[in-house]
């Protein structure tokens, strides 16, 4: 597994619950609870009658383009956002890639697997993990940043990210969680005025489709063509294409917008509960704007282990470059679940 500086770049939240037999309350994986909804499951199931034919992505591609007001040639459908990171690493000729951390580790892992030497820009806790564009080397010809960033839950201003654009540079913005932000404010998905911009979107988080693998890239047509040439034939299955088309339609966009406001309210409830642990040394990164919260507390590894004994799985933070063993990431769930977790956290901290 790609590692660097003691960080296992291929450790993800699903590892926290993979072998638990469903006994743990999952606060480690950032997939929205109670998904996919029944209407989406039925829509996907209806596509199974067409499995004898090769997948045809034209309708789904057009639907994604229409959702963002872009021409279809600026859209590439992928088997989840993770495939897009592999395509970027393998298809594009870059000399000095830079990844802004802490963030989702798969972009760096994919770059390293493709033989690239990766430079890191480490954002600092004392700055609220906010982006300082001046920290990115001028010589970087590929810059990767998440927005809102996993695991910090920081939402960077769109104009600050756009200021990283340079002639001859690709600016890759991972917006996998942007549809969980009310109004998708600070999104760059529909911008065509930023040179070298590549925006990645995932449909697996909000819609609970991690097992189906569906996402997409928004970029200049020449970049889309370069990435498409690196894909195998028929990279996205017929059921995944059906899901993509459904998840960018008006009904789904409205449902996601409603869910984003609910997540924001549930996150505020969680943050209020976490505030009472400040005397125990707990600090929250942020301000948090995503469907998860990053916290720092003494003896986090022991607290995490105790939480498992109490029935709750949370994401360890020490696999993210820029973080250490005192960090934990908590997925936002409904208030009843959060209240149960806070009671368990009280016992775990006391222990």
Give structural notes.
With 351 residues, the protein is α/β, with parallel strands linked by helices. The protein folds into 2 domains: 6-34 and 260-350, Aspartate Aminotransferase, domain 1; 38-252, Type I PLP-dependent aspartate aminotransferase-like (Major domain) (Aspartate Aminotransferase, domain 2, 3-Layer(aba) Sandwich). 34% of the residues lie in helices and 17% in strands. The strands form 3 sheets. Strands 4-10-9-8-7-5-6 form a 7-stranded mixed sheet, sandwiched between helices. It has a 5-stranded mixed sheet with strand order 3-13-14-12-11. Helix 4 links the parallel strand 5 (97-101) and strand 6 (119-122). It is globular, with a radius of gyration of 20 Å. It starts with a strand and ends with a helix. The mean pLDDT is 94. Pfam families: Aminotran_1_2. Its EC number is 2.6.1.-.
Shape: globular
The total of beta strands comes to 14
What proportion of the residues is helical, as a percent range?
Answer: 25-40%
Largest sheet: 7 strands, mixed
Mean pLDDT comes to 94
In the sheet with the most strands, the strands line up as: 4-10-9-8-7-5-6
Distance between the termini: 34 Å
CATH architect. name of the largest domain: 3-Layer(aba) Sandwich
The H-level CATH homologous superfamily of the largest domain, spelled out, is Type I PLP-dependent aspartate aminotransferase-like (Major domain)
Q: What is the helix tally?
A: 11
- Proportion of residues in β-strands: 15-25%
Q: Could you name the ranges where pLDDT drops below 50 across 5 or more consecutive residues?
A: none
Determine the CATH topology of the largest domain: Aspartate Aminotransferase, domain 2
CATH class of the largest domain: Alpha Beta
Structural class: alpha/beta
Indicate how many domains the architecture comprises. 2
Radius of gyration, Cα only, in angstroms? 20 Å
Helix-strand string? EEEHHEHEHEEHEEHEHHHEEHEEH
Protein name: Aminotransferase
Enzyme class: transferase
GO molecular function, one term: pyridoxal phosphate binding
Organism: Streptomyces chartreusis NRRL 3882
């Amino acid at each position: 597994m790609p590692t660097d500086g003691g960080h296992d770049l291929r450790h993800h939240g699903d590892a926290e619950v993979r072998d638990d037999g469903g006994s743990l309350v999952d606060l480690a994986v950032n997939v929205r609870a109670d998904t996919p909804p029944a209407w989406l499951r039925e829509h996907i199931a209806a596509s199974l009658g067409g499995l004898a034919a090769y997948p045809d992505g034209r309708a789904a591609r057009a639907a994604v383009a229409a959702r963002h007001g872009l021409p279809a040639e600026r859209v590439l459908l992928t088997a989840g956002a993770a495939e897009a990171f592999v395509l970027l690493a393998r298809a594009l000729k870059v000399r000095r890639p830079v990844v802004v951390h802490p963030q989702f580790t798969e972009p760096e892992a994919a770059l390293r697997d493709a033989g690239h030497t990766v430079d890191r820009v480490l954002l600092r806790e004392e700055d609220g993990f906010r982006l300082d564009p001046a920290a990115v080397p001028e010589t970087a010809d590929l810059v990767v940043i998440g927005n809102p960033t996993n695991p910090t839950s920081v939402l960077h201003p769109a104009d600050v990210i756009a200021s990283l654009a340079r002639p001859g540079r690709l600016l890759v913005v991972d917006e996998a969680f942007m549809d969980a932000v009310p109004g998708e404010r600070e999104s760059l998905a529909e911008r065509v005025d930023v040179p070298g911009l590549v925006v990645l979107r995932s449909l697996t988080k909000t819609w609970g489709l991690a097992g189906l693998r569906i996402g997409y890239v928004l970029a200049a047509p020449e970049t889309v063509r370069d990435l498409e040439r690196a894909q195998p034939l028929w990279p996205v299955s017929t059921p995944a294409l059906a899901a993509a088309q459904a998840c960018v339609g008006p009904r789904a966009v409205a449902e996601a917008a409603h869910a984003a406001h609910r997540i924001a309210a549930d996150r505020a409830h969680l943050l209020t509960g976490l505030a009472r642990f400040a005397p125990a040394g707990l600090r929250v990164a942020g301000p948090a704007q995503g469907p998860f919260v990053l916290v720092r507390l003494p003896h986090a590894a022991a607290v995490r282990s105790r939480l498992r004994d109490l029935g709750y799985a949370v994401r360890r933070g020490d696999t993210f470059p820029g973080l250490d063993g005192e960090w934990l990431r908590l997925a936002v769930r409904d208030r009843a679940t959060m209240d149960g977790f806070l009671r368990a956290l009280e016992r775990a901290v006391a222990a």
